[in-house]
Each structure stands twice: as structure tokens, then as C-alpha cells.
Amino acid sequence: MTDETLQSRREILVALTCAACSSLLPACGTKTESPPATGQTVTIKLSDETALTTIGGSIRKSYGTNNAGQPVIVVRTGQSEFKTMSTVCSHSSGSLQAPSNNRSVCDLHGSPFSTQSANFAQPLSGPATTAVKTFTTTFDATANSITIQF
Ligand code: FES
């Protein structure tokens, strides 16, 4: 075997190793695109979601193909105010977990996102730097329900 053959094999191995590693590692620093809007609305009776009957209460659920089939987090941020955010992280598509202590933490790199009204869906620390997608959520006091616009 010549030196040129060894060099060539070494270059191929390095190239294959790099390709394999890059396919296994999350794309750190790659900003996630927001899921496309579906134009659908989902109405939730608060009597069916008791976690939303108190201020600060939240649910984490999927609603069909909305939000690209990924769950959303719905939070009661006030007596008559509800807010909804995607669980798809704005950093590299990790998944935001169920809220605790007014934040939802990404399972991939750990950025916490606020679930409080004033800075809802905003990252509280890196590596994420931009808010996750939010969905307009309206409260109907008469029907005691909320409607999420996807
Ligand atoms: S994917 Fe990196 S912080 Fe969420």
C-alpha cells in the first residue's frame, strides 16, 4: 500500500466520520422555523380542563395537525386571560416541557421560556434567543371556554 493510498483512505474515513457525527448531533445554533398556521380554531371547555380553572394553571397538549402536530402549552395568565405557546423550541426544535415555577424548559439544551403574561414565550436564558410561536387565545366567560386560533 502506498502513502497516497493511505492518505486517501484517511481522508475518506475523516469525511465519513464527520458526516455521521453531524447527522447524530442536534444542529446547535440552527434557528427553528415556526410551524405553519392551519387557520383552524380549537375550543376548549374549561370544565374539561380543571388545570385551567386557576390563575397560573396550565396544560400541555396536542390538537391534531395544528402546530405541526406538536403540543402547545396553554396557561391561564389572568382571571380572563389565557395564552398559548408552541412547545417547539426556537433554538433547534427541542421540546418545551410542562411548565413549573412560571417557566417551561427545553429538553434539548435547557433554555427556560417564560409562562408569565408580561414576557410570555420569551427565553429567560440561552442558548435560545427568540420567543417560541404563540397562538391567539380568547376567553368566552359566558360559555366558560377558550378558543385557540391556529
Ligand atoms: S433546542 Fe436548544 S435550547 Fe431548545
Description:
- The chain has 150 residues and is α+β, with helices and mostly antiparallel strands.
- It has a single domain, classed as Rieske Iron-sulfur Protein (3-layer Sandwich).
- The protein contains one helix and nine strands.
- A four-stranded antiparallel beta sheet has the order 2-3-4-7, with no helix packed on it.
- A hairpin with a 4-residue loop joins β8 and β9.
- The longest helix is centred in the first third of the chain and has 22 residues, at 3-24.
- The model is unreliable at 9-27 (pLDDT under 50).
- The structure holds FE2/S2 (inorganic) cluster.
- FE2/S2 (inorganic) cluster (FES) binds next to loops.
Can you tag this structure with a few keywords?
single chain, 150 residues, alpha+beta, 4-stranded antiparallel sheet, 3-stranded antiparallel sheet, 15% helix, 24% strand, globular, binds FE2/S2 (inorganic) cluster
Task: Give the SSE map.
Elements: H1 3-24, E1 41-45, E2 58-61, E3 72-76, E4 82-86, E5 103-105, E6 112-114, E7 134-135, E8 137-140, E9 145-149
Antiparallel strand pairs: 1-9, 2-3, 3-4, 4-7, 5-6, 8-9
Number of strands: 9
- What value does the average pLDDT take? 85
Small molecules held by this entry: FE2/S2 (inorganic) cluster
Could you tell me the CATH topology label.
Answer: Rieske Iron-sulfur Protein
Low-pLDDT residue intervals, each spanning 5 or more residues: 9-27
Just name the CATH architecture: 3-layer Sandwich
The whole-angstrom Rg is 21 Å
**Helical stretch tally:** 1
Structural class by SSE content: alpha+beta
The main pleated sheet reads as: 4 strands, antiparallel
Domain module tally: 1
User: What is the approximate shape?
Assistant: globular
Strand order of the largest sheet: 2-3-4-7
Helix and strand element order:
HEEEEEEEEE
Distance between the termini: 63 Å
**DSSP strand content:** 15-25%
CATH homolog superfamily: Rieske [2Fe-2S] iron-sulphur domain
- The top-level CATH class is Mainly Beta
